[in-house]
Amino acid sequence: MLDLLKHATETDRRCRLYAMKQMRKVDMLRKGQEGHLRAERDLLASAAATTRWIVKLAYSFQDVDHLYLVMSYMPGGDLLTLLIERDTFPEKMARFYAAEMVLAIQETHQTLGAIHRDIKPDNWLFDAKGHLAISDFGLATDLRFDHDGLYFDQQRQELLHKHGIDLEDASRGRGVPSQPNFGSTGSDTPPSILTWRDQQRRKKAFSVVGTNNYMAPEVLRGAGYDVRADWWSLGVIIYEMLYGYPPFVSKNRQDTRHKVRHTIEFALRSLHLTYLCHRS
Fold first, then answer.
1. Is the pLDDT of residue 194 over 60?
2. Residue 252: C-alpha distances to residues 83, 215, 218, 257, 259 (Å)
3. Is 262:247 a contact under the CB 8 Å cutoff?
4. pLDDT (tens digit per residue) in 7-46
């Protein structure tokens, strides 16, 4: 849930608006989202002092029942709303916004060392001057072991038992990442003699998360992916800005995923059909 806050300091009597994200602790525990939330808070806190194209985190705090993230208010709305209003963008306009998105994704990868994993139009927000910033790091990962949901499993079970919350069958679909615990090698083998394959695995994420129309094929295949998955999502958004719809949109989620997984075959078939239409 997002709320607007007003804040005035003694030295500056002008009111400042903030957006506040409020999360119920019990929901977070039920869904196993401690790792996601911890990663979001840590990444946004780091971004606040080191980045230009990421929404700023001003404060984070908690009470008995809720966790709160207080961020800069972006009065211009989001890119999805603008796409709905205008349907398509002129090429010059699309190129301008694509350039700003490139800068934001580059900051996410190089400055924060993270994969955003949910690059889509509604996560791009406009400031008062019409410039874009990326938001919602709830699915982002920097592959730290203490940002992995598995790291919190024992603590979660103890808390739920303490408060009498029944989680029978709740583990289904709770969103716990499937990647390994990156805090250990999983054996008695010293880290210094990790094989090349193990080292590469530690640089990849394995959870199938994101929004179907914007997910890269390697994410859906679940065989491991890296920051390049975010660049795929940007390509989908650029296509949508120019043509008015995502390239793999379908009537249902299964068909969309099938198209994305078999993107090369789908592209060749589309080109062939276009060629036949031109010939006829």
1. no
2. 21, 15, 20, 9, 11
3. no
4. 554 455 567 889 999 989 888 877 777 777 888 888 999 8
Global confidence as pTM:
0.73
Which pairing describes strands 66-72 and 16-24: parallel, antiparallel, or unpaired? antiparallel
Given a contact cutoff of 8 angstroms between Cβ atoms, the answer to whether 137 and 46 are in contact is no
Q: Residue 157, SS3? A: helix
Count CB neighbours of 157 within 10 A: 12
Termini Cα distance of the chain: 54
Higher pLDDT, 246 or 14: 246
Find tokens 């997002």 and name the residue: 2
Distance CA 274, CA 43 (A): 44
Residues β-bridged to residue 68: 22, 61
CA atoms of 130 and 119, how far apart (whole Å): 19
The residues carrying an active-site annotation are 118
CB 213 within 8 A of CB 219: no
